[in-house]
Amino acid sequence: MRVPPGVSSEDFSTALQQFEEAVGKEWVFTSDADVAMYRDAYSPFWGEPDELVASAAVAPDNVEQVQKVVRIANTYKIPIYPISTGKNLGYGGSAPAYSGSVVLDLKRMNRIIEVNEKNAYCLVEPGVSYFDLYRYIQENGIKLWVDVPDPGWGSPVGNSLDRGGGYLLPQFRNHFDSHCGMEVVLANGELLRTGMGALPGSKTWQEYKTGFGPWIDGIFSQSNFGVVTKMGFWMCPAPDSYLAGTVTVPRYNDLSPLIDILGYLENTGCTNGMPFFGSPLLARGPLGQAGPVPDPELTALLDREGGPDPDAMDAYAAKKGIHHWSCTVSFYGGPQANAGNWEFAKERFSAIPGAKFDLHGAYKLPLTPEVQAKFNLPQFGIPSLQMFSIGARSATNPTPGEGHVWFSPIIPRTGEAVFEANRVFRQAAKDLGLPIPPFSLPTCYWERAFIFLFGFPITHDVETNKKNRAAFKKLVAIAAEHGWAEYRTAPAYQAAVMNTYSFNNHALLRFHETLKDAVDPNGILSAGRYGIWPKHLREEAKA
Amino acid sequence: MASRREFLQVGIAALALPISAHAGLAPAASALDNAGPFTPLYKVVFDERFPASVAFGAEARSLGLPAHSIRGDITDLWFHDLDAQWKKKPAAVAGLTAQGPLFCLERLAWDHGMRVVFRGDHQYLPAGSIEHILTGPESVVNQAAGLQSDGDDWAPRIANLVARVPEGPSAPSKAAIRARAAAPASAEAEELISWVIAPVAGARIMRRA
Q1: Tell me, what's the pLDDT at B26?
Q2: Which residues of A touch B204 (CB under 8 A)?
Q3: Per-residue DSSP letters for A222-277?
């Protein structure tokens, strides 16, 4: 059995015994076979000495048990790493950020405490998965939707604390923004409730976010300042109807007005579904999905030194008779409102000469199973594992890896930024020998910024992973040089990314560290998560 | 029953033997018919996108097993069937699918004290051959020699193998068998994996009922 670094075998053995007394012997896992379940399937260090692995795991059933475990960990200075369902593949999975930590597995805490249909919110524990919540809603005939990420086997608590996103209306799509109130076990074992939850007997914990005084919820996301044991979320009342349509525009430089007009439509609430950009010319779908390999003439145009020449691209598109860009917009609401908003969107997009429109359809909700099969289910609040069925092997990726981590810098929501990001990352990809597509389109999870998303392959080949890790860090640095930075990343890269948020001699990180030292002086909680190290490990981590 | 880790450890040693040695060790398939008891299979999953998987499913059905078709996505099967079943009582499932469905089901099964107890990787190689790398109970792996002569028609034999995974602890083994076989026409064909996920005594169980 592995022992956490800096902890004596004797202390660890005593702590494990006390964990067993706290949660029951059957809920403390120390065998190699059981602990192996917590490996990160997408670890960039897979099979290497530096792979982040747990020493043991403990699975409490309730808040009181979490408090006991945390107090024991504090007594013996055992590093612990809380996880919800541990399914954030590509962002670390269930493996700790500090190798040798004991995973505090909250999966057994899977109570759906309340779903309030009238005021559209829920209160859940960390072990509740999106599937659990969806099943509860379905079985109880509740007319609410939950905004689910892709895939849906993670937990609302874990995904929102990681600041993940979904596909519904903007106010739900950012999962941390859609939360309302949390309960947190602090490193000393004390229990804290945020927002209106701090009021004993509060009637509005899940109905008013900020309570009174400093609003501290944010410090518990992407951090290591407490163990969140309950969280409230605002949910989407089941919409009546859905309409989707696509606008295509002919010229290379039309991307800028296309984005600007979309921004107006979104920010005025005209379109409220998640938009998707594509390129008929490049045969690229949303999320950078690869289509067929482009013909060599087009690849040469895209690969031009200094970036594509708009006139040459336009000539190529005209020759082929294919529009350059597309944007699919969608509308949730009443049927007349959806139809009216689509007409208004068409009117606005028509400011771009040559714009063409394609109405996909207008549908009464819930969708019939036949219609539903045509769609990406998360767009209708339905969790799915469908993304795992998409063949990894393709013409552009004949030897797929074992998984991926996302390189996902935030860039401005402008056409100029998209062109610049493509120019910069395309050149970097060439220099680093990376399989980045010739042109990538950003995703629109957030209302005011784009995510420029690349899946970085993970293999079980040590040398390939080593090369990819170096390349990933290089891309992080290149992005930062251009004013772009990651919004979320796997533990292997969290310190590197945090290092780019360096304004005024890393004032933000130093503030994080000040908080860390105050609320977790023994540094037992999730050491290293998002680059925040406890005092006793800080110098070593930065060396 | 040995853990997957133990399978792999044994497998590494076993794989050091020449392939022909493995094949030579295998008894005739009929010898297994007197063995047992076999792990009862609650569902046998095949993917209708792949001809080999369809043949596997057809053979499973002819063996009286509850074959269930998917098209890559196991969400419906798991959400509407397996999840409820596993919450009541863990039950073994088998399949011949691409990596994605196995990846999901394996992880979903972990929390119910189940593990992959048999795995076969079936990879088409250049020059018209296929390699079957099998890891699992010795009694099953030893039955796989016939794959050498099956050629393109290998999938039904795999159905027979997964149907004969012994219930309870079993000595682990591994074998690699090559045979002549033409790769599927589609350039985008996924590598198929056969598998059995079954309850394993002493394995971690996580979910509350």
Answers
A1: 33
A2: 29, 33-34, 37
A3: SS-S-EEEEEEEE-EEPPSEEEEEEEEE-SGGGHHHHHHHHHHHHHTTS--SPPEE
Q: What is the mean pLDDT of each run of 10 residues along chain B (209 residues)?
A: 33 32 33 69 96 96 98 96 96 96 96 96 90 96 90 94 93 93 70 95 76
Each domain of chain B, given as residue ranges in start order, spans: 4-199
Q: What confidence tens digit (pLDDT) does each residue in A327-378 have?
A: 999 999 999 999 999 999 999 999 999 999 999 999 999 999 999 888 999 9
Q: Are residues A268 and A352 in the same domain?
A: yes
Q: Which chain B residue is nearest to residue A94, measuring alpha carbons?
A: B107
Determine if residue B98 is left, alpha or beta; phi over 0 gives left, psi from -120 to 50 gives alpha, anything else beta: beta
Contacts of A202 (CB under 8 A, 6+ apart): A196
Q: Give the count of Cβ contacts less than 8 A between chain A and B.
A: 75
Query: Residue A73: phi, psi to the nearest 5?
Result: -60, -40
Model-level pTM greater than 0.90? yes
Q: Residue A481: how many CB atoms within 10 A of its CB?
A: 9
In a domain, A206, yes or no: yes
Residue at A450: amino acid letter: F
* pLDDT for residue A246: 98
Question: Higher confidence at residue A121 or residue B9?
Answer: A121
pLDDT digits (tens, 9 = 90+) for A464-491: 999 999 999 999 999 999 999 999 999 9
Instruction: Kindly state whether residues A169 and A248 are assigned to the same domain.
Output: no
- CB-based contact A54:A95 (threshold 8 Å): yes
Is A384:B73 a contact under the CB 8 Å cutoff?
yes
- The reply to whether residue B207 touches residue A110, judged by beta carbons under 8 angstroms, is yes
Task: Give the Cα separation of A25 and A333 in Å (integer).
Answer: 51
Say if the Cβ atoms of B204 and A37 lie within 8 Å.
Answer: yes
User: CB distance from B206 to chain A under 8 Å?
Assistant: yes
Domain match, A536 and A514 both? yes
**Same domain, residue pair A212 and A245:** no
Of A110, A385, A393, the CB nearest to B190: A393
State the distance between the two ends of chain A, measured CA to CA, in whole angstroms.
Answer: 28
The two structure tokens encoding residue A248: 């295509």
Among A237, A272, A303, the domain-final residue is: A237
Alpha carbon of residue A147 to chain centroid: 13
The HSE-up count of residue B193 (CA atoms within 13 Å, CB side) is: 17
- Any B CB within 8 A of A12 CB: no
CA B80/CA B86 separation, integer angstroms:
11
A409 and A428 part of one domain: yes
Give the CATH number of the domain where residue A66 resides. Answer: 3.30.43.10
Instruction: Quote the CA–CA distance of A305 and A290 in Å, as a whole number.
Output: 23
What is the per-residue pLDDT for A542? 81
What's the CA angle centered on A299, arms A297 and A302, to 5 degrees? Answer: 115
Round to whole Å and give the CA distance between B2 and B8: 10
- Tell which of A112, A125, A389 to mutate to test the B interface (max B CBs under 10 Å): A389
Numbers of helices and strands, H then E, in chain B = 9, 7
Question: Which residues form the domain of A437?
Answer: 403-498
Contact A389 B71 (CB under 8 A): yes
The domain boundary, picked from A237, A260, A288, lies at A237
Q: Is B204 on the interface with A (CB under 8 A)?
A: yes
d(Cα A526, Cα A101) in Å, to the nearest integer? 8
Q: Into how many domains does chain A fold? A: 4
Closest CA to A154 of A228, A87, A79, A200: A87
Q: Where are the alpha helices (DSSP H) in A162-251?
A: 170-173
- Please give the mean pLDDT across all residues of chain A: 94
Cβ atoms of residues B170 and B138 within 8 Å? yes
> Is B152 within 8 Å of chain A by CB?
no
- pLDDT tens for A203-259 read 999 999 999 999 999 999 999 999 999 999 999 999 999 999 999 999 999 999 999
